[in-house]
Amino acid sequence: MPAASAPPIRVLLATHNVAGVFDDVEGSLMEWIDGLVRLVALQRSDFVALHMQEVGGTSWREPFALDCLPGVTAALEANFPAFWSSGMLMNLDVREGPSHASTFTALGSIYLVRRQTALARVSLWRWASDEGLAGEFEPLSGLDDPLQPEPGLPKRYCRHARFPTSINLDKADWSRKGHMHTRWRLDGGTEVARTLDLVNIHNFHDECNIRAIQSAADFSSDPSSEGEAPPRLSPFAECRRRVLSLVTSQLALLSEGVHPPPAAFLFGDFNTRLDLAAVVRLLCGSEGLSAACAIDPKEPPRALNTMHAGPSKGGAGPDESLDDWALVPLPVSTLLLGKKRFALSEPRLLGRHLDKLRNFDRELTAFPATLPDSAGENNSAAGAILYELPIGFVPSYVYRTAHSSGSPDSVAASSPLKARPKRASFLASPAPAPDPEVPAPASEAPAKAAAGWAAAGGAQAGGGHGAPFAPALGEGAAPWRGEAWCDDVSEKRCPAWCDRVVMDTRAHALVLASAEAAVYDSETQERIITDHNRVFLSFTCG
């Protein structure tokens, strides 16, 4: 164990749905890697956990679609020469037939550990094997670098499963949704080592906008009120709740007898959606909600009139003056609504109501909840309490990409792209990475993150006293970054905070004890290359 004077380990947990990156590897990969390099340098990270979803893109079924994975992994590792690498941890079993059930989830995880400051202080858990080997931690200094030379799934170090089809009552065929679990021990410089359970998760999405509205519509209350009544969940949200209960219950069982007890972090694409009925009522009024509930999902989308939107109460974005942005009312517009259509003729209406939309991010407030067990009795132990730091960033999903539809749940549409030098192919020798030991140059990003942290109420979840998932921050409390982001939203889904980093009680306490203020943020894309923004949590582990 390191001396007590050793500095804490700087941890970066990042999640990104990368379907769009893999749909245009030649044109997007190096730009995407550049962003990750800048993030790691800015946060001065020693331990980096990168969780990816939809690896392989939308064409993963096509022959040789995953053949680019070794080159993608090599390009990423070449830009982090000062780090030990796990390689690409990923299940590649895409076969599906009468005699073989595929286990493919399109989840990919890469872990990077800075050799100079952290390698000797980090260990990876080896799971108990059929050969009788007991589970134990193995120091990274004694493992291969990279751990997985070619993309694949080292089962002794990684647990992976696709969610059972029975958990999603709306989908008869198999789905790629699943989770991946690794366990790490970090000796952060104190006398107590920290065990981290890291879970990469991709939960189920909404199959139909109209069904989500019809099942959750509530005409009895003010849509913008916070209230104490539990939210009415759509069948899709109920499915996501069952998934979280399954995963957290499994984590609890796998933690028994482990010392020190693991702190669990779940980060990935949770597909959490806003209460869409409340959104429609806010935008179009009670009459508009009634009209939305009457839409037949099999029929073409229907246009609903939105209500007047006055001046915004937020501040101007980085490229927008207050006079040009905050004081300009938006005209009455229309919402085109259908099974897979959510298109505002004035998308900046979303920015005007963003504080209220945060109050409609309600799914996780209903977790944990009692679930019936196999005997039909309520099981109050299903799932664990999960926490999240205050959200001060714009929705992480859904954005238009210029080259493709991104994930299957988004829409193909042209998007105005900013001029940017085109990087060479990822197959060519990558440009040398900046020296990771040199402190990152000062920029406005840390100031924004710090401002967001303070405005959202500090380190405690929900701005309260450690209460899990209290999304209501109050009018003007969150440092929203202008309305420009609205111009890039897709026209198929309502924007939502799908990508998140959540944690159990031990992990929450660990983050709150960070020697430096933790940063929970997202990275907006200068050029939209995938339909999700990267979301990350940075803190120190001592």
What's this model, at a glance?
The protein is an alpha+beta fold and 542 residues long. Helices cover 21% and strands 18% of the residues.
Question: What is the CATH superfamily of the domain at 9-96 and 103-207 and 227-269 and 357-442 and 498-541?
Answer: Endonuclease/exonuclease/phosphatase
Helicity range: 10-25%
What is the straight-line distance between the termini? 12 Å
Low-pLDDT runs: 312-327, 369-381, 404-479
Q: Note the run of SSEs as H and E.
A: EHHEHEEEEEEEHHEHEHEEHHEEHEHEE
Look up the CATH topology of the domain at 9-96 and 103-207 and 227-269 and 357-442 and 498-541. Deoxyribonuclease I, Chain A
What number is the mean pLDDT? 80
Structural class: alpha+beta
* Biggest sheet record: 7 strands, mixed
Q: Which radius of gyration do the C-alpha atoms yield?
A: 23 Å
What's the CATH class of the domain at 9-96 and 103-207 and 227-269 and 357-442 and 498-541, please? Alpha Beta
- Relative strand content: 15-25%
**C-alpha geometry:** globular
Task: Give an account of the 3D structure.
With 542 residues, the protein is an alpha+beta fold. The chain has a domain at 9-96 and 103-207 and 227-269 and 357-442 and 498-541: Endonuclease/exonuclease/phosphatase (Deoxyribonuclease I, Chain A). 21% of the residues lie in helices and 18% in strands. The protein has helices at residues 19-23, 25-43, 69-78, 209-216, 235-254, 276-293, 322-325, 349-352, 354-359, 444-455, 505-512; strands at residues 9-17, 47-53, 83-85, 108-114, 122-126, 136-139, 159-162, 178-186, 194-202, 263-269, 302-305, 334-338, 341-344, 371-372, 378-379, 499-503, 519-523, 534-541. The strands form 4 sheets. Strands 5, 6, 7, 8, 9, 10 and 16 form a 7-stranded mixed sheet that branches. Strands 3-4-2-1-18-17 form a 6-stranded mixed sheet. A 3-stranded antiparallel sheet has the order 11-12-13, covered by helices on one side. Helix 4 (209-216) crosses helix 6. It is globular. The protein starts with 8 loop residues before the first strand and ends with a strand. Mean pLDDT is 80; it is low at 312-327, 369-381 and 404-479.
